[in-house]
Amino acid sequence: MTPAPRISRSTVVVASDGAISSDLAGEAAILDFKRGTYYGLDEVGATIWKLIAEPRTVGEICAALVAEYEVEPEVCERDVFALLGKLAASGLIETGDGAASR
After folding, report:
1. DSSP letter at 7?
2. More confident residue, 66 or 91
3. Do the beta carbons of residue 21 and residue 31 sit within 8 Å?
4. Cβ atoms of residues 33 and 23 within 8 Å
5. What is the 3-state secondary structure (H, E, C) of 36-88?
6. Beta bridge mates, 21
7. Residue 22 phi, psi (nearest 5)
8. Is the pTM of this model over 0.90?
9. Distance (Å, rounded) from C-alpha 34 to C-alpha 26?
10. Has domain 12-97 been given CATH number 3.30.700.10?
């Protein structure tokens, strides 16, 4: 695994080209062809994965989740940072500076 980049609310994230995913009854299965590794995401993780099919800031992801699910913004942000950190360390997402990406 590569070290996870620093992620903030303004970080832009997008799914990596090398990751192929499939919807499995509301959950997501992701295959990383480069590493030959399979990952599974629950319903909320699958929602995040769908959101990052296009580049979005972490703040935009959190706002969408708070609007869709009954979750406190602070809890949502903490959990989103944790998941994105794991996805980044696994090479499944690409990150960029929000100011530079727009």
Report:
1. -
2. 66
3. yes
4. no
5. CEEEEECHHHHHHHHHCCCCEEHHHHHHHHHHHCCCCHHHHHHHHHHHHHHHH
6. 30
7. -145, 140
8. no
9. 25
10. no
Contact indicator for 21, 38 with CB cutoff of 8 Å: no
Average pLDDT rounded to a whole number, residues 12-17: 94
Is the CB of residue 32 less than 8 Å from the CB of residue 45?
Answer: no
The maximal CA–CA distance of the chain, rounded, in angstroms, is 36
Query: Sorting pLDDT into bands at 50, 70 and 90, what band is 87?
Result: very high
Number of Cβ atoms within 10 Å of the Cβ of 45: 19
Q: pLDDT tens, 17-52?
A: 888 899 888 899 998 878 888 899 999 999 999 999
Please give the pLDDT value at position 56.
97
76, two tokens: 């949502």
